[in-house]
Design a protein that fits this description.
By secondary structure, the protein is α/β, with parallel strands linked by helices. The chain contains eleven helices and eight strands. It folds into two domains: 105 residues, no CATH class; 203 residues, Spore Coat Polysaccharide Biosynthesis Protein SpsA, Chain A. Helix 2 links the parallel strand 1 and strand 2. The mean pLDDT is 93.
């Protein structure tokens, strides 16, 4: 039981403290930039947008894309409507005289299937992927594509910046993603990141390996397919997409279940990523992609083992650690109460977000086992 407890605690600490510290240490010995970028590089670009019932925001998104600081004659905008039932198709069709191409599919097939079809229609050297609900900064495409002057770069993910929503979920979300961006910025210099942000990322069309149509997480499957071809995927902090934090916990929870189910799916679909060569790639993938998905299991083991050890073995250290765990989970519970009552309690924000995300991860595992997560997505607000 003591082995179970200390291994679980060690795994959790490694994921959120040990691995970042090792990255920071490794960064001190790496002098290179993430890529040999060229600010004057202007390849042809196809913006790929998969939509389902997006009438509330698709007009603003298309206006945003058309106003980007990029040569109009080198920019193609493709919209694939996955059997939308609202006014999405009619609104997108209004932009046809401005060069937007609408593909209105009659049968629902899921986001990945729509993205695969649109890439097949694309003519740009670079495909840029985004969600309908998030808006690009004017120079976002310029910041992304300049890295493709480096022939070793296969994909580039941008920076999703959330609004300053003063809520437990909002604070927790922003803290989490700042932490992720710090890791990705170092990983980009060391070797490669292993996942993109679905709100803003770009890939070379020639290296796009179409994932299976029922793939849940396109922003993980697409970069992994490129990495396994020997190319690198990097993070660009100044290529920005902006959007709102999910304000309702149940919607965040639903999104977390879907994304975690997709991560388990990709573990089985990209087994080559678990081979220990190249060693740096394996280390980054295992530490930043695999270990966080396993954390909720280690949390359960640590809590159960700590309770049993405190009861049957005792000692100030074990009792103290059990009290600390109790305080942390109590703060998360108060965070849930504050969320329901629409209070803002800063002290509870991170515990509340952390526990909610990890419970969602557990549900995602069982959803994956049951095959209950459809590739067809619902709009999350």
């Amino acid at each position: 039981m003591q082995w179970i407890f200390w291994i679980s605690v060690g795994a959790i600490l490694y994921t959120y403290l040990g691995y970042p510290c090792l990255l920071l240490l490794g960064q001190a010995f790496v002098r290179r930039r993430a890529s040999q970028l060229d600010d004057s590089f202007r390849p042809t670009v196809s913006i790929v947008l998969a939509a389902y019932n997006e009438e509330s925001c698709i007009r603003e998104k298309l206006e945003n894309c058309l106003a980007l600081d990029y040569p109009a004659d080198q920019l193609q905008i493709l919209v694939g409507s996955d059997a939308s039932e609202d006014g999405t198709n009619a609104i997108a069709a209004e932009f046809s005289d401005r060069g937007v191409k609408l593909f209105a599919y009659q049968a629902r097939s899921g986001k990945m299937a729509v993205v695969n079809r649109l890439v097949g229609e694309a003519t740009g050297e670079i495909c840029v992927f985004s969600d309908i609900s998030e808006l690009f900064d004017r120079d976002a495409i310029l910041k992304l594509v300049r890295h493709f002057a480096d022939p070793k770069i296969g994909a580039v993910t941008g920076n999703h910046i959330y609004d300053a929503e003063q809520s437990g979920m909002g604070v927790g979300t922003r803290f989490y993603w700042r932490f992720q961006r710090l890791l990705q910025s170092i990983e980009s210099r060391l070797y490669s990141i292993c996942m993109c942000d679905g709100t803003i990322y770009a890939a070379r069309r020639e290296w796009y390996a179409p994932p299976m149509d029922n793939t849940i997480n396109d922003d993980v499957a697409v970069p992994l397919g490129i990495i396994l071809q020997g190319k690198r995927v990097i993070f660009e902090a100044s290529a920005v997409a902006r959007g709102k934090v999910l304000q309702q916990t149940r919607r965040f929870f639903r999104q977390k279940i879907r994304s975690q189910s997709g991560k388990y799916q990709n573990f089985f679909r990209f087994p080559g990523m678990l081979l220990p060569w190249p060693p740096v790639r394996f280390w980054i993938y295992f530490s930043h992609s695999v270990m966080p998905v396993l954390v909720p299991w280690f949390l359960l083991l640590a809590l159960a083992a700590n309770i049993l050890l405190a009861k049957f073995v005792g000692g100030p250290l074990l009792l103290g650690l059990m009290v600390l765990q109790g305080i942390f989970y109590a703060l998360a519970l108060f965070g849930l109460l504050a969320d329901r009552c629409r209070w803002y309690l800063p002290l509870t924000a991170i515990p509340f977000y952390f526990v909610t995300a990890n419970i969602g991860s557990l549900f995602g595992f069982f959803t994956f086992l049951a095959g209950a997560q459809s590739a067809a997505w619902r709009k999350v607000e």
